[in-house]
Design goal:
Blueprint (H helix, E strand, L loop, with lengths): L3 H6 L4 H4 L3 H19 L4 H10 L9 H7 L5 H11 L16 E4 L9 E4 L7 H4 L1 H7 L7 E3 L10 H6 L3 E3 L8 H8 L5 E3 H10 L5 H4 L6 E4 L5 H9 L4 E6 L5 E4 L6 E3 L4 E6 L12 E8 L10 E10 L11 E7 L4 E3 L2 E3 L1 H8 L10 E5 L3 E2 L2 E7 L7 H16 L3 E7 H6 L9 E3 L1
Parallel strand pairs: 3-4, 5-6, 6-7, 14-17, 16-20, 18-19
Antiparallel strand pairs: 1-2, 7-8, 8-9, 9-13, 10-11, 11-12, 12-13, 14-15, 16-18
């Protein structure tokens, strides 16, 4: 294991990244009491919810009071308030909109995208402030080029480059000039999502991916857990991947080079993980729903926001030396289903499909009719260049699913391209309603 000095030199803000748990707890006590005074009486939706629950700012003196007394906030509450009152930010704004620096969106993978207002600290999006720590730890330095795309989801990724002194190039993998730009500028970082990871597989049929991507120090992969077979492909290409995701829509969480969970920067948010049945706090290592609270967005903070994300977390320090929580995303609450008494998740289906060469890219959708179903219907994307016998492919995919889940599946086979074309977010919607 690296020495403390070596670990510290790979950290952008070691005093924050290695903050002892006792100091993080005291920080949260102070920030939650401060947030309560900021939001109540100013943010209309939060004020109404707190009034209904009989909560006042004076009741909140820290973490215990906040978790015990403050009611949950949900996406539907925000959307309903937005519709009823023509309030663009769902009644969360608690400062004059003249303080507004930007608006970002969720991906909208499981429904309408949610819009969030941000007030940027010192001119920088809070979503990317913490993310700089992960990339600095992976070796990104001032003067490096970074491909940042042009998506508005999660805010301007260019901030990530600029905060590190790197140079953003607004281009992604699917741009026609991608190969030319990589050859000319030799960028050190870019992000892929499920959609573009599959595009990279297509690119590998015509170019030497290992050679083209040799300039990258690290590549991010966002939006969903990466399948085992896909990760092995990246390893064969000598590509170092850092998976990242949202930390409950209040910040971002990134892997470090230890690849042992995604660091959730607790100076940007207060996070709870609650049992989906009882609502009780989940011990480290257990699975529960992530509940998030903004600590660095004073214009429209989320307070005890039900993310509908299923996660496993630990508060044990990482081998890299950082002390903040780490999470492993497991799926969405709406993804849970039982088919003939067998629990089925998208990740289990993915593992089955990875074993079949024509479907190993893991492009699929489960067609859901309810939480409990008698039949498992799956829309499966296959590589048209490899598939020559669809009847045989159907039989092999069915056998792979049976081997994994002991369930017979109703399969709809479509080309990978057709299924990807149905995405408007860059992410594959894994569970769709019938």
């Amino acid at each position: 294991m690296a020495s403390a000095t070596a670990r510290s030199s790979s950290m952008l803000e070691p005093a924050v990244e290695c903050m002892p748990r006792a100091e993080l707890n005291a920080y949260h006590d102070d920030k939650l009491a401060e947030l309560s005074g900021l939001a109540y009486g100013r943010a209309p939706l939060l004020t109404r919810l707190w009034d209904e629950a009989g909560v006042r700012p004076a009741d909140i003196n820290g973490r215990a009071d906040f978790s015990a007394r403050v009611p949950f906030l949900t996406k539907d509450m925000i959307r309903d308030y937005r519709s009823a009152y023509c309030a663009p930010f769902g009644g969360l704004e608690c400062r004059a909109l003249s303080a507004l620096d930007g608006v970002f969106t969720s991906s909208g993978t499981t429904g309408d995208a949610t819009f969030f207002a941000e007030e940027w600290r010192d001119g920088w999006s809070p979503h990317w402030l913490g993310a700089t720590r992960a990339l600095y730890g992976a070796g990104i330095r001032a003067g490096d080029y970074m491909l940042v795309g042009s998506s508005g989801m999660r805010g301007p990724q260019a901030h990530l480059a600029q905060l590190l002194g790197a140079i953003p190039i607004f281009m992604g993998l699917t741009d026609p000039q991608f190969l030319e730009v990589v050859e000319r500028y030799r960028p050190a970082f870019m992000t892929l999502v499920g959609f573009t990871a599959v595009e990279l597989l297509e690119l590998s049929k015509s170019v030497d991916v290992k050679q083209v991507f040799s300039c990258f120090k690290v590549i991010g992969f966002a939006g969903e857990p990466l399948g085992v077979a896909m990760r092995e492909r990246f390893t064969a290409w000598d590509i170092e991947l850092l998976t990242w995701s949202t930390a409950g829509d209040v910040a971002l969480c990134f892997e470090c080079l230890e690849h042992d969970g995604m660091h959730m920067w607790e100076d940007t948010g207060f996070f709870e993980v609650l049992d989906v049945e009882t609502g009780a706090p989940v011990e480290d290592g257990g699975v529960g729903e992530l509940i998030s609270t903004s600590l660095c967005n004073p214009i429209a903070p989320l307070a005890r926001y039900r993310t509908e994300d299923l996660v496993r977390v630990t508060r044990e320090p990482c081998a890299c030396g950082r002390t903040h929580m780490r999470q492993w995303p497991l799926g969405r609450l709406g993804d849970l289903m039982v088919v003939r008494g067998v629990s089925v998740t998208p990740s289990e289906v993915w593992r089955a499909l990875e074993t079949v060469p024509e479907t190993s890219a893991g492009v699929f959708q489960i067609v859901k009719t309810g939480t409990r179903m008698e039949r498992l219907k799956i829309r499966v994307g296959y590589d048209a260049d490899q598939a020559t016998d669809l009847a045989g492919l159907r039989a092999r995919v069915g056998a792979a699913i049976w081997a994994r889940l002991a369930i017979e599946a109703d399969l709809e086979l479509v080309t990978t391209g057709e299924l990807l074309a149905s995405s408007t977010t860059g992410k594959i919607q894994r569970v769709v309603k019938a």
